[in-house]
Specification:
The chain is an alpha+beta fold. The protein has helices spanning 11-28, 328-360, 367-385, 428-433, and strands spanning 30-31, 36-44, 47-53, 64-72, 75-76, 81-83, 87-91, 98-106, 112-113, 118-122, 133-140, 144-150, 162-166, 174-175, 178-182, 185-191, 204-209, 218-222, 228-229, 237-241, 244-248, 260-268, 275-279, 283-287, 295-303, 320-322, 389-392, 398-401, 415-417, 437-440, 452-455, 464-466, 468-469. It has four helices and 33 strands.
Length: 470
Amino acid sequence: MAVPAAALLPCPLLLAVCWVVAAGTVAGAKILPSPSNLNYSFIHICTLNWTWNPPENISSSCNLEYSSDIVINGVPEDRREWSKSRFRVMDVHLNEEMRLRVRSECKKDNTTEPSPWVETSLPPKGIPGTAAVDLSCVWHNLEYMACTWRPGENASSDTNYTLFYWFDGLKNPKKCGNSSVDQGIFECIFNLTFPKVTSTYPAISILIRDDSEEIRPVCASKNPTTLVKPATPRQLTLSKTNDKIDVKWSESETFPKSCLQYEVKCCNGDLDVGQIIPSEINSVSIAGIDANSKYTFKVRAKPKPECYNSDFHSDWSEEKSIGEKRDSTIYFVLIITIPLIVAVSTIVLLVYLKRLKILILPPIPDPREILKRMFGEQNEDSQKLQRPLILKTKTGRLCFISERGRKLTPAPIPQVTVDVKRPVRHWPALTSLSPSLVHRGCITNSGCSSISAHKYSPELSQDEHVHSSV
């Protein structure tokens, strides 16, 4: 088998030959001249038109095209374009340095090389850090757009930002007049409507700037179909038939038909957690409900993906309820009161039964207690009768009086001071201490030898004399 001559050459030598052939090809290629007179101009706010002139001395066989590229802050953007046109329209941000570069190429022609890049730049104006930041816009119910933003970190407190907007269909940019500031957040609202039959919507160009040259302007381009937020569904009505609840609400008047989908939230009782029921129309029916339960409903809308590319939901509608919830207060009161009533009734019944038992079966008295009580009373009477009396005269002489034949006890002896010149019956102290004794006679100053006393008793005809001694 024959071996090609190239195969016999060493690898380094083969690479050298290939490089020489390639170098010859490049050396023989013709480099195209660059486009000339590259310039730009603003068509509308935030819309820039780059233009250039074609290169000279181009062969008629050259399929000439232009390659354009954008460089922002020194970093090339991934937006290179090839076109036969000698212009390029694009949106700009204005708060960053932008450069456009263009070169000419002959497509499908190996004998020519692309021309060198020709560039022009658009430097930003104003002080860095003064441009508005965090721009956010929402298209409410296809009727108006609300945009908010914050001031730049280097902007002064008296900066008065103004919003301008433009889209294809307006002759001139418009100024947003309905602006406000709340806690450092700027907001501006402007009307934005299109016919219902519109299937494609133009981009909205927004410019925020200040009259001062020190404030750097900022531009943004917004796709309105990604900013759509429907209005809150209204006129929510509920109706109940047998074990089914029908929920209905009004359709939107601004959205094309069949461009909204809905979510219905159903909650059982007072719970905030419930099931989400999707619906493609403005009504939904829920079957298998509990007749003794309370149900709460609310609805919100969202644009359909085939109409709008928005992820915004509307706000929830007002809540509507149907049905009656069982009052748990009654059960709670019953749980508390029934055991309490049973406990009180049991206590009353036990007390009543104890008294009834005492009435039916009285306790048998203890004979020992009866005897002890009887003898104890007699002893007390005898002690009262045996208590002696002591009389003390004004001369200081003491006289003891007791009943004859009785034994004196060591009990405390009461003392009485009497006037010996008065009759015994006029001694009130003696009478009060021993009411059963009535004394007669007088006590002489010489002593108690003549004292006599007798106990008066209506049953006796004679006085029973009591002997006294000192």
